[in-house]
């Protein structure tokens, strides 16, 4: 299985975890994003995720590289699911192993924040009373540089 | 031909995800956005979305040429 | 399976995760502690963990209660393995689910720190060139109150 | 009888994990530590280890009585 993977089937968390466990890891921080039913007073029926798959996998890999730059002994694996997801389904699983626990927590958290900034994946909420693409589709946020945060022109 | 990819709300408005547009000489992304609006009418969010050429983020003044894939990337919402 | 569990068999991470996933969880932060081979220049051959099992399970449960007090919508499950563990074996798996990710990370981290303070479990390192009980067995740290941090006389 | 539990380095030094000591009237943990040292000789780390009576942390002045379980808890190192 790829370390940085967009998939259409349910995610096997243990397979993602196994990809980062090794003899000098002492800590693995795993982040699992699941489909939540209630957001404020809005009730979700189900979600749809769409991705620009080849670019999304490249961007996930880039996040892995950023983590290795910041936490030199870290090892990262990320799988994001797309398609239709029901309440409690796993949308994303991130596993980061490091020799010591503080780095694992920080790196795992870094990964999910970066996914939300630079990986071309989109979520459509299907609520009981309507649907919407999430992520500021109305265009009120400006990317003045043309790049998301931390992505530079090469 | 330049291959154009649209996603999320943009694809929904345009009614397609994947089209090809003929270009004779390289043109900027700004110019390509104009061509798209000529074809589909106004597309909400096109003005301020991100773009990628051949799977790498680009900016509005980047040039696309025949054989390139240009993706319009609305604000992402994975995770 | 118990939510707060001391076991002698290999830990099934997915079972611990499943215990905290529910319809209003949106984030699960999982911490997995594994046996690391090198600590500085010391090479571990294997570890032995010992526990005061009934009290250890009560203390794990207490950590779950502390988490629920601090993060009201959190749900926690913790399994710690004892006995002989080889390099890369999982010693502890903590899963905390919350509606939003920040709380999950914080609570999961809180849990591992508290385990290291209040849960009666001991680790014996078997190095290539000797063995030792870990945890300041020499008695240089004083518990002046007679209680570990955050445990009060009732 | 008070049931005494020893763990980790303490159990290793004493050569046992689980013994019973007769008490006629309740005695403090400090006094029980003295009894243990009479029985086993000096035990490294006994002085500053934590204690639990019936699976709850206690302090040195807490009293133990017949039927109680008293555990001596060296600095913990789980996780």
UniProtKB/TrEMBL annotation, chains A, C:
Name of protein: Molybdopterin synthase catalytic subunit
UniProt superkingdom: Bacteria
One Gene Ontology MF term: molybdopterin synthase activity
Keywords (A to Z) from UniProt: Transferase
PANTHER family named among the record's database cross-references: MOLYBDOPTERIN SYNTHASE RELATED
Signal peptide bounds: none
Annotated organism of origin: Fictibacillus barbaricus
Pfam family, any one: MoaE
The protein's Enzyme Commission number: 2.8.1.12
Coiled-coil residue spans: none
From TrEMBL, chains B, D:
UniProt keyword annotation of Nucleotide-binding present: yes
Phylogenetic lineage: Bacteria, Bacillati, Bacillota, Bacilli, Bacillales
Pfam families, per the entry: ThiS (PF02597)
Family: Belongs to the MoaD family.
Xref: CDD domains: Ubl_MoaD (cd00754)
Matching PANTHER family: MOLYBDOPTERIN SYNTHASE SULFUR CARRIER SUBUNIT
UniProt xrefs under InterPro entries: Beta-grasp_dom_sf, MOCS2A, Mopterin_synth/thiamin_S_b, ThiS/MoaD-like
Keywords (A to Z) from UniProt: Nucleotide-binding
Metal-binding is among the record's keywords: no
Protein name: Molybdopterin synthase sulfur carrier subunit
NCBIfam families: moaD
